[in-house]
Design brief:
The chain is an alpha/beta fold. It has eight helices and nine strands. It is globular.
């Protein structure tokens, strides 16, 4: 059963080494993510599942490596293993439990970095990548399955809002982006599962929203949970991309 969840943005720029000189611009978002992980730890889950966007839909066992070398930074992470490490696993392999040859997608790598940064030790950690095109009903089914993995399950849900908030945004300016993000922020901040279930997958794709599928997985996971309340910890759109941090507990 789902007992807690945290929704965090997943831009690689959240990692200071990637952001370099622009790192201070996301300090408030990083602090909110740290607070959100504290809520997860306080729930004392038996299992934490990091859910994020992926090119396919697949599992990532504890110990799966990831890196930010594709963003020009020699920084490695490992899921559920204390985060960044500059001195090991240069070939993306290692002696952990990860699947040989498979690395974390960028969203789960950011999640692994957040867990390492905060020294997560509250419960075993697994990852689940969900493809952007996964239909809403399939996302809900994914969530129900994940919630049934243990008596007390927590989710760290990685995803960004629209990438069309300004003229310089990755997707250019789209007037539909701000209201779409506002509804997502409201739904995450109030634990409104009905609103998350109702997110328009087609519109989300047009607005380059990476979090639609992970958020609908969260909605499915919460179906059997009673008394969940939400809190919106952060909302902003630096670089024209919607970033939201919220907790459910």
């Amino acid at each position: 059963m789902l007992v807690a969840a945290a929704a965090c943005p997943c831009p690689p720029l959240l990692v200071p080494e990637v952001a370099a000189g622009a790192a201070p611009e996301l300090d408030t978002a990083r602090a909110a993510c740290t607070d959100a992980l504290g809520v997860l730890a306080a729930a004392r889950p038996d299992l934490l599942v990091v859910v994020g966007p992926d090119a396919g839909t697949c599992d990532y066992p504890a110990g799966t490596p990831g890196s930010f070398r594709g963003f020009g930074v020699d920084l490695d992470v490992r899921l559920g293993d204390g985060g960044g490490d500059r001195d090991r696993d240069r070939d993306g392999a290692g002696d952990g439990d990860g699947v040989a040859g498979r690395e974390l997608p960028y969203g789960l790598a950011v999640g692994a970095w957040l867990l390492g940064r905060t020294g997560w030790a509250g419960a075993p950690v697994e990852g689940r990548g969900v493809v952007e095109s996964l239909a809403p009903d399939a996302c809900l089914a994914e969530g129900r399955r994940l919630a049934g993995r243990a008596d007390r399950v927590a989710l760290l849900v990685m995803g960004d809002g629209s990438a069309c908030r300004t003229l310089k945004a990755p997707g250019y300016l789209d007037e539909r982006a701000a209201p779409f993000d506002a509804e997502i922020a409201r739904a995450l901040g109030t634990a409104d599962t009905a609103a998350l279930r109702a997110l328009d997958a087609g519109l989300a794709r047009e607005l380059k929203v990476s979090g639609r599928a992970p958020w609908q997985v969260l909605a499915g996971a919460a179906e059997g949970a009673a008394g969940l309340s939400g809190a919106l910890l952060h909302e902003d759109a630096p670089y024209g991309v919607g970033y939201m941090v919220a907790t459910w507990s």
